[in-house]
Design a protein that fits this description.
The structure holds two protein chains of two kinds. By secondary structure, chain A is α+β, with helices and mostly antiparallel strands. Chain A is about 30% helix and about 25% strand. Chain A is built from six helices and 14 strands. In chain A, the strands form four sheets. In chain A, strands 3, 4, 5, 8, 9, 10 and 13 form a seven-stranded antiparallel beta sheet that branches. Chain A is elongated and about 65 Å long. The two termini of chain A are about 35 Å apart. Chain B is mainly α. In chain B, helix 5 crosses helix 6 and helix 11 crosses helix 12. The longest helix of chain B is centred in the middle third of the chain and has 23 residues. The N and C termini of chain B lie close together (about 5 Å). The chains are: A alpha+beta, B mainly alpha. Chains A and B meet through helix 2, helix 3, helix 4 and helix 5 of A and helix 6, helix 7, helix 8 and helix 9 of B.
Chain lengths: ~230, ~250
């Protein structure tokens, strides 16, 4: 855990997660962080109680609708006697393997990775596996091999990175498992990992490389991102 | 003589016949036995009395509470109880729908979708899952999320129930499993005996204790829900507490 920086979601973000008003990608990375972080789970619990309270006390909207038929048709339905076993509990993959390592994933990420991951090698010892869970954000696992270094880059929109295993560093500090990093277009950074590092990242727009040859790829990169998004939707 | 963190924690132990709260105050059965010397090992008669007490406690006392209506909906497929829940919640659900979708038709669909789920899952609800409000809130938020995802034709490999697991935030997920099994039998038995003391209280006192110590409501909220003056609530609570102390045979 990095002690100099606050590597947790903001209260505002947690609150929107409670309300269900975030895009799926953000929800998924928040859910995974909560599984790893007791402090945030506690805060989530408090925020949820407050939200339930204001919901049940808050202003209601009168529905201009006669629901009497609806009630009658609902009560004809059978009731469930036992809890569903969500498909996720049918043993989702909870472990993934990279090189000589195997990693245990939080439940929601195991579910997201359940269809199998296709790893792609990028420059500098970085591996990327996109997961198709959301049309509004780009979600991916990133594995930085030991000794790897990403080119200096800046984010155009927001990027959230959740460290799942190992650690990496940039000019601001070192980040370890459960750390939750929020980057925006003001941040330019060059992460390095000595021991190797598995992360889950959610982006709401593509990266801009600001260094070296990788800069040449910027237009293509943007094009590819739009294409991915278009393809998914 | 008792060394609980607070009176509230003691009453969680007394009122909630489930394990969670004993674990919550960090007690094991040996400590419990030491702290409550009057507790006997459980006999068969005790067992059936305790079971009755549990059943009683798992049915909320106040027949006008949402929890009571929800348990009724599940236990006896009561269409009247469900209808009353529908009256109370449809406009709240509609309001949440308008906030999240800004669309009237979708919000009406959400009322249907969420209330259908309340009906279908009502048998799975118990007081251990928290208030009826928070249970229905979770159903509504999750159904709304899945509805919107379907509408946006998003991939369905993760659903709302994966994102907001039911037991998120509860302590039980963090506790080692082995410890649970080892202690479970005797703890449940003794907690049940304590629970059986609770049902010996007059009903108005039970209702007050239920609101304050099980649903964790403030005195003001509880008074409003039970539609009694605050002073009455406080005196019932005081009487109930005193009576429990007497029954259990310990000085607090």
């Amino acid at each position: 855990m990095n002690i100099d920086l606050d590597c947790h979601p903001t209260t505002e973000m947690l609150n929107k997660y409670v309300q269900g008003s975030l895009p799926t990608g953000w929800n998924v990375v928040l859910s995974a962080h909560l599984e790893l972080c007791q402090k945030c789970r506690q805060e989530y619990g408090d925020l949820e109680s407050a939200e339930v309270h204001s919901w049940s006390e808050g202003p209601v909207e009168e529905v201009a609708n006669d629901f009497s038929d609806l009630v009658a048709s609902i009560i004809k339905q059978p009731q469930q006697a036992t809890a569903d076993t969500p498909p996720s509990q049918e043993s989702p993959i909870t472990e993934i393997h990279m090189l000589d390592h195997s990693f245990t994933l939080p439940r929601v990420l195991a579910k997201a990775a359940n269809d199998g991951l296709e790893w792609k090698k990028l420059a500098g010892g970085i591996n990327q596996a996109k997961v198709n869970i959301d049309t509004e954000t780009q979600c991916e696992f990133i594995y930085m091999s030991p000794g790897s270094q990403t080119p200096m880059h800046r984010h155009q929109g927001n990027e959230i990175t959740l460290v799942l295993d190992g650690s990496f560093s940039d000019a601001s500090g070192t980040y370890e498992a459960a750390d939750f990093l929020i980057r925006n277009n003001k941040d330019e950074h060059q992460p390095v990992s000595e021991e190797g590092c598995l992360c889950f990242a959610v982006l709401d727009s593509p990266l801009t490389f600001t260094q070296g040859l990788a800069r040449l790829f910027n237009p293509i990169n943007r094009f590819k991102f739009r294409k991915t998004i278009a393809h998914q939707s | 003589m008792l060394k609980f963190g607070s009176q509230r924690e003691l009453f969680l132990v007394i009122c909630d016949p489930t394990l969670k709260c004993l674990r919550y105050v960090g007690m094991n059965s040996a400590t419990l036995r030491k702290e409550y010397p009057t507790l006997r090992p459980m006999s068969d008669t005790d067992q059936s009395a305790a079971n009755a007490a549990n059943a009683r406690l798992l049915t909320p006392v106040d027949p006008d509470s949402d929890e009571y209506l929800l348990v009724e909906t599940g236990n006896s497929q009561s269409s009247e109880a469900f209808n009353r829940l529908f009256q109370r919640y449809s406009s709240k659900i509609y309001a949440m729908g308008m906030k999240l979708t800004r669309n009237e038709q979708l919000s009406k669909d959400l009322v249907q979708e969420a209330m259908l789920n309340v009906w279908r899952k009502a048998r799975l609800y118990d007081l251990d899952r928290g208030t009826a409000q928070s249970w229905i809130f979770t159903i509504t938020r999750n159904r709304c999320f899945d509805m919107l995802r379907k509408l946006k034709r998003q991939p369905n490999c993760v659903t709302a129930d994966d994102i907001w697991p039911q037991d998120n935030g509860s302590e039980s997920a963090l506790l080692p499993e082995g410890a649970l099994h080892e202690e479970q039998g005797s703890l449940v038995a003794e907690a049940s005996i304590i629970a059986s003391y609770c049902k010996q209280l007059p009903e108005p006192q039970q209702a007050v204790i239920e609101q304050v110590y099980i649903f964790d409501r403030t005195h003001d909220e509880a008074a409003e829900i039970l539609k009694i003056p605050l002073g009455t609530l406080k005196s019932r609570l005081r009487l109930g507490v005193a009576k429990l102390r007497q029954l259990i045979g310990v000085d607090l």
